[in-house]
Known about the structure:
Layout: H1 11-20, H2 40-55, H3 61-64, H4 67-72, E1 86-90, E2 95-99, H5 105-112, H6 121-130, H7 134-144, E3 148-150, E4 172-175, H8 181-191, E5 195-200, H9 213-220, E6 224-227, H10 233-244, E7 248-251, H11 255-260, H12 265-270, E8 274-279, H13 291-297, E9 301-303, E10 309-311, H14 317-329, E11 339-344, H15 345-350, E12 365-367, E13 370-373, E14 380-381
Parallel strand pairs: 4-5, 4-7, 5-6, 7-8, 8-11
Antiparallel strand pairs: 1-2, 2-3, 9-10, 12-13, 13-14
Helix pairs in contact: 1-2, 2-14, 5-6, 8-14
Amino acid sequence: MTAQGSGVYRRQEVAAWAHSGIVPLTGHPEGPPLIPPGSGALRAEQLASVFAAHTGVTVDGARLLSERAAYTGRSRGGPVSVGGSCRLLPTADGWAAVSCARPDDPALLAALAFAGDGERPEAAVARWLAAHDGAALAERAELLGVAAGPVTRPRSPRVPVPGLPRSVRGLHIVDFSALWAGPLCAHLLGLAGARVTKVETPGRPDGARRGHRDFFELLHLGHRSVVTDPDTPEGRNKLASLVASADVVIEASRPRALARFGLDAESFVSAGGTWISITSHGREHNRVGFGDDVAASAGLVARDGEGQPVFCGDALADPLTGLTAAVLATTLPDPGRGVLWDVSMTDVVAATLPAEGAGQAPAARPGADGWLLDTPDGPLPVAVPERRR
C-alpha cells in the first residue's frame, strides 16, 4: 500500500507527516513506522505560517510536534505512549486511552476499577474496561478526575477562529499553565517579544520539571518565575496583582479550580484582557486529560495490520493546542472589550481528522539512509525528531 492508498491519506498531509518527525514515533517498536491519519502535521505548518505573518517569528510547526521526543530519546511503543504513561486498552465496545502519569493516579485508577485487595491498578483497570463500554469509562473518569477516555472522534469539533493580527511585543503574559501546550504558547509569544511571567504554586509545581531539563528550559528561557501560595491571603493578593498587570493570561485549569483562587476570567475579559483557557474537553466539562490520552480519545490513532490502534507521535494534542493558542493570542480582541479563547485540546485534534475512518495505516519501508514512504510522486524520506537549533 502506498501512502496514498486510501483517500484519507492525502499528498500534502503525508508530506507534512514525513517531514514532522512523527512517523518514527508511530507504530509498534518491532515493526515499521506508520503514517498517522489526518492533517495534524499540515495544520501545524499552517498555524506556524499564520504566527510568522502576525509576529515575524518563524518556527517549523510540523517539527515542533516531535520536539520533545528529540530531547527524551524515546520512540514508538505501539499501544504504549512514547512517554510511557498512557496505554490503549480494549473496552466492551471498542478501545480506551488511560493515563497514569501523576503520583496519585494509581490510587485513582484503583478506585475507578473497584480494585480488589492486592490487585494491581493496571490489572484492575484492564478487567473493568473489558466489562464496560466507553460511556461508562468517560462518566467515572470525570467523576474521579482520571485522565482517560474512549477512542472516539467528536462529531462537531469547535476550534476558535483567529481574527485580525496584532503585535504582542511588550505585552505582559501571565502563564498559569503547565506541561506542554500552555508553556509552548507562552514560549512562542516570548519569542515574539512579549514579557512572560510563569506562575506556580508550592504544592503543585509544573509537572514538566520532572521531565527532560533541557526541554523545560527551552520552553521557559527568559521567562520570569513566580511561586506563590493561593491558599494564603498574601498568595491570593499576589495572584490578583499579577492578573491585574497582565495583557494576556494563559491557564489550563478547570474553571472551578481558578474560582477557588479568586481568579475570574469574565471580569478580566470585560476589562479588555485576553484570556486563553486550555482544557482537555472545553470549559463546560470537568474532565481532565493529558496530551496522549486526549489525542487518542479524540480519534488520533493509527491502525496496524491487525486493525489494532497504536499511538500517533508523542502527546500530539499538546503542541497542536499550543500552536493554536499562540495564534489566537496574536489576534485582536473585539473592540472595546477583551476575549476569552476557550481552547479544547480534544476539539483541536478532532478538527484535523478525516470524517471517514482511516483504516490500516500505510507503513514506511527501510531505505539506504533511513525510512522511506512510497507515494505516487516517488519515495519520501522520513525525518527523525530533532532539537531546535
